[in-house]
Specification:
Number of helices: 1
Radius of gyration: 25 Å
Strand content: 15-25%
Oligomer: single chain
Largest sheet: 6 strands, parallel
């Protein structure tokens, strides 16, 4: 009888052990704490666990969290024609915390992460890439449903299109200082993304980079930023504040379309072009300051930068009258097409413009 019970206990242990181990691999995201990025306290290796640590960023909170992890074994690799080593897939790696060191298990330097390497990986929770890796190819982490946080190394000089496209749980990520262009759709559809730090040196935000990042509340642009591309912040419905830099030259079409929480926008001196529909459908927008120095404001077929905005929106400018580069209907918004009308222009109305105005306080 004792022997039967012992066998049963051993069988239960054998069955439960994998479940318990897999549970321990997941890192709990503490409720009620705004956690910062992971930092290395003791560097992991392929043979020994290291320690990563992070803390709550809320003022006065002293909560910290530690996690022990080894460098990721069992990953798949490929070499390009120049002999540079890329991670190409999960392989036999079974963890949810992906710690990537500078070298593979055989000691060869890791150059980058290949295209679609972790596409739609359903297990990844955190990614920490140590210094050394320099390239991340397109769609490398696209569609990872559980991915919460990413640490990218300062050695990274290039991230291609859609690296974190449609990662709905991603809350935080850093942009290495050597990255000068945020590639198209980099964080498109990351609707949990709360914070991104843009380093000095970033000159260009590409197409749809932060499209539908509905949790992004504020963003400060570096002085080096020159271009905000088409659809760059489209649908960022929680965005309440934008601090533009004086180096900004162009705001693209639909750049801030449907940013419902924006109330005030102060455009910078030296801006050269404000494109059609740049602030379209911003229902809460009440004040926009446009300096006389803005070279061009587009409004093709009545689609001004402020089309479909609220009629209470007022445009302020220090210009004494409309500058030559501003479209005649730069202040157009759209009400609706009257019944029995075949001319869509019949539905257009115009926002109030205050010339000779002073720049509002931030």
């Amino acid at each position: 009888m004792k022997k039967i019970r012992l066998i049963a206990l051993l069988l239960c242990t054998a069955l439960l052990c994998p479940l318990l181990c897999s549970c321990r691999k997941d890192v709990k995201e503490p409720k009620g704490h705004n956690m910062g990025a992971w930092e290395v306290q003791k560097e992991p290796t392929y043979k020994k666990k290291g320690t990563l640590i992070r803390s709550c960023t809320d003022e006065g909170c002293t909560y910290t969290q530690k996690h022990k992890v080894k460098a990721a074994k069992g990953l798949e690799y490929i070499e390009n024609e120049d002999g540079q080593l890329y991670i190409s897939g999960r392989g036999s790696f079974k963890g949810s915390f992906l710690y990537i060191p500078a070298e593979n298990e055989q000691g060869k330097p890791i150059f980058g992460i290949a295209q679609q390497a972790f596409l739609e990986d359903s297990k990844l929770q955190y990614v920490y890439i140590a210094e050394g890796l320099s390239h991340i190819e397109g769609y490398a982490f696209t569609g990872c449903p559980k991915l919460l946080g990413v640490h990218l190394p300062e050695s990274c000089i290039e991230m291609n299109v859609g690296v974190f496209l449609s990662c709905p749980a991603l809350k935080r990520a850093n942009i290495p200082s050597k990255i000068t262009r945020l590639s198209d759709q980099l964080f498109d559809g990351c609707n949990a993304l709360e914070e991104v730090t843009l380093s000095e040196g970033v000159t260009d935000i590409g197409f749809s980079v932060f499209n539908l990042c509905t949790s992004l509340k504020t963003i400060t642009f570096p002085s080096t930023l020159a271009t905000i591309g088409t659809d760059a912040f489209c649908g960022c419905t929680a965005l309440t504040e934008i601090v533009f830099s004086t180096g900004l030259k162009e705001i693209g079409r639909n750049a801030f379309l449907n940013c419902d929480a924006l109330k005030t926008v102060i455009l910078p001196e030296n801006l050269q072009a404000l494109s059609e529909c740049a602030f379209a459908y911003c229902d809460s927008l009440r004040t926009v300051y446009i300096p006389e120095s803005v070279g061009s404001i587009g409004a093709s077929n009545g689609f001004s930068p402020f089309v479909y905005c609220n009629k209470e929106l007022t445009l302020l400018t220090n210009a004494e009258n409309r500058p030559a580069g501003w479209a005649e209907d730069f202040n157009c918004y759209y009400l609706s097409t009257p019944e029995n009308s075949t001319d869509p222009q019949d539905g257009y109305s115009y926002l109030k413009v205050v010339y000779g105005a002073q720049k509002p306080e931030n």
